[in-house]
Queue: 2 jobs
Job 1
Amino acid sequence: MSMLKETLAAKIPAMREEIRTLIKKHGDKVISQVTVAQAYGGMRGIKCMVCDTSLVEPDKGLIIRGHPIIELTRRLPEEIFFLLCTGELPDDAALAALQKSLRDRAEVPSYVWDVLRDMPDDSHPMDMLDMAILALERESVFARRYREGMRKEEYWEPALEDSLRLIAKLPALAAGVYRIRFNKGELLAPKPDLDWAAGYATMLGVPDPDGEFADLMRLYLVLHCDHEGGNVSANTCHIVASSLADPFYAVSAGLSGLAGPLHGLANQECLRFVLSIKDKFGGVPSAEQLADHCKQRLAGGQVIPGYGHAVLRVTDPRFVAFHNFGSKVCADDPVFQIVDLCYKVVPEVLKAQGKAKNPYPNVDGGSGALLYHFGINEFSYYTVLSAVSRSLGMLSQLILNRAMGTPITRPKSVSTEWIKEAVTV
Ligand code: AMX
């Protein structure tokens, strides 16, 4: 197997000991408190779970194992997965070994294609990806080893094996969803010598004479890889896996959360907004026209898609990375030019309105325009691309949780009656 497994095996005993000691010495210290508003309000801001793979800082954005995401944009997603799992970037040999592990596990069983081809023609691409992952659950080594009887200390090993199996197959599955759902013709075979993201790019079948689309896929799959532990998809995956449901069940559940319009589905709205501006003005508007258009939209009670964030209070560095890419690759594309103009105009409009806590662009503010530039104009597919990437984060968190023996999640719920009594005493 890859050196990823050996690196983890070497680190896990010390990680377990560190946590054991921490709980023993400081287990009764208070790190957060819960207000009534938080209990009713999506548990926002309550510090009650641990995630060591990444951190979202309001003034800095996503930090992966101590590395700001903007410093990782030239890395491959495979390198990021190694980093998420171990806290270290792989050397050349470890990267090559991980890539070989993925290639060895990449083949998708034919019954999965039968499931996808049998689904109704108008199925959402996220339904199809989810179904494919659930169909694959029968391949789970974790489930088999658990049935056979396995020691708790060993859980992380089949969790890693299942994760590699799933990650290896995701590019073919996601590309297959695209080609089947949007009638793009036969499935395309993976080329064995390509990295994970470039393999996905070729299986999608997007013309890519200069390799720029493969570069975009590498960037896209790095930027969406993880976003702490409390977001809907990561948290859902975490809870489901805490029941010792295997990684296929857990990731499928997490991705069902990603399919929500307030989470992963937001990216398709952002591009719709940009294209509606192009239609309305017959191309790129002036700065004044765009500002007026945005003000009218706000006056009509609508948000500006791609702007604002629940946690961030600066321009999302992932937006900056996509913007830099677009400036290099498609600066003369009017759709990208509108994204660029929004970046200059919208923050001032939102600041003047004074409601949004963060008037700056988020990750979804520009990525759709880049996909559109390369001819992926099926908006409903965009969430699948983030799903492929986010699986890296969900699975790395899952492997670590099984290694640390994280118990089943079971917070205490209370009734409204209980709260009313509690606040009046
Ligand atoms: N345009 C207009 N108004 C906005 C706004 C925007 N982009 N962002 C926030 N506001 C408004 C809110 O609607 C809220 O108004 P209200 O008081 O009348 O309800 C007020 O500003 C305060 O909101 P907030 O605390 O700044 O944001 P939030 O944490 O409640 O919501 C988010 C965050 C992302 C849902 C919000 O900024 C938004 O709706 N943005 C536009 C949609 C979007 O880009 N979604 C993608 C998010 C990225 C992702 O996670 N995929």
Job 2
Amino acid sequence: MDLDAITKYSALHAKPSGLILQYGTAGFRTKAEHLDHVMFRMGLLAVLRSKQTKSTIGVMVTASHNPEEDNGVKLIDPLGEMLAPSWEEHATCLANIEEQDMQRVLIDIGEKEAVNFQQDAFVVIGRDTRPSSEKLSQSVIDGVTVLGGQFHDYGMLTTPQLHYMVYCRNTSDQYGKATIEGYYQKHSKAFVELTKQASCSGDENRTLKIDCANGIGALKLREMEHYFSQSLSVHLFNDGTKGKLNHLCGADFVKSHQKPPEGMEMKSNERCCSFDGDADRIVYYYQDADGHFHLIDGDKIATLISSFLKELLLEVGESLSIGVVQTAYANGNSTRYLEEVMKVPVYCTKTGVKHLHHKAQEFDIGVYFEANGHGTVLFSKFAEMKIRQLAKELEDNKRKAAKMLENIFDLFNQATGDAISDMLVIEAILALKGLTVQQWDALYTDIPNRQLKVKVADRQVISTTDAERQAVTPPGLQEAINGLVKKYRLSRAFVRPSGTEDVVRVYAEADSQESANSLAYEVSLAVFQLAGGIGERPQPRF
Ligand code: 16G
Ligand code: MG
């Protein structure tokens, strides 16, 4: 380790004094102008992690659905997963230390994690379309280089594409080829093969309108569309040529405002979807003949997919275990439908992809989706092997079903939730089942719900248990929530400190929209009073 070079280069990426940042649920996120030193330091950390794991590590520069002026960075672990928790702590520590402590902290991390400094290191880098991203990814490269790491800069990629590259590289290309063409070919081939099985294919030229949030999804879909255009034609809106990234559009906007994005021409009953700014989230929606907007969120996506998988498993006669993983934000009726109608086991974890991903790995086939549209389906090695074997051995309809399972396995990004691959699976299932978007939506009706934010002096005074469904502290808060929930029918409410914003989030469900609104308001007031609210008191208006 050339300590002098580190000191010299580190000074060129100086930390603004007094700035403290935390490696949160999705890495570091803040205003782009405050991130140069964090990028350089994450380049250093990625090299250490690569040396320790003797694997390729990914560094993604993006702030996802956050405003264009923001940016962020996260590290991707060897199998495409989110960074291990102990390394999140190193990341926070390294991002916040003063210049003069840099050498000591690097040596410290190296010792704690038994890093062999002689080991080679390889880091792959990707970035979104933000104007600040190019320069910031250069700072990551500076960090990688000064610690002697090798790197490959993929330039602009969706977040899930970088996860895919990391996964491919660390499995000697067995999973797929670690190039952008490799990604397009693998997914398109599986999609085209799958949709060929649809009896109605060819009758109708299937089209889908996609709001790309003015982000990277648009660029990548443009490059990819000719690979699958024989089965699906996509109409891209908010493709970044005019509008601002994530501004009044994208999956986060549509989900949280429950309305269509700007810049999209929607006709009644047309199937539409929105990606977020880095294309790892997707929600569907349509407008009915009366002009009413219908959102089809991650819960309904999980329901469609798990129902279809269950049918195929029944057809091939294989008893592979299947489980659905949700968070506390999953609509109560989605959980009820999955458990009572579909008879699939449902599990609840804390918010954040890594928690769901981890739980989903416990099943042969683990379907996980957050209501906000992050999700994928994971297949165990055993399930993959079994399915490939069945696709060869079985005959007639059973073989057909096994082949579909094989295609679905190839389509889902096994490294993380991926809007592009999720979209292709959904489109294939709708075609195969001959379902319209309205029929899909009608599987169950969402219980009316409301989300609110409350500002408090220190959101960490709220701690939770039972996958965030119960508040442990401050004292009295859970009792207050219990009392309020009892006043309404079909009701449920919980609060949790946000992992990405300095607020406490409140979620409430009840039998009518008015009831959900007032329950959310009353719970907000309880949070404000018992957890040190600051600023304006919550108001009963929406
Ligand atoms: C991050 C998480 C997402 C989660 C959200 C919750 C990843 C890649 N992203 O965006 O899964 O739903 O945070 O935000 O893990 P909150 O803590 O502010 O509610
Ligand atoms: Mg995202």
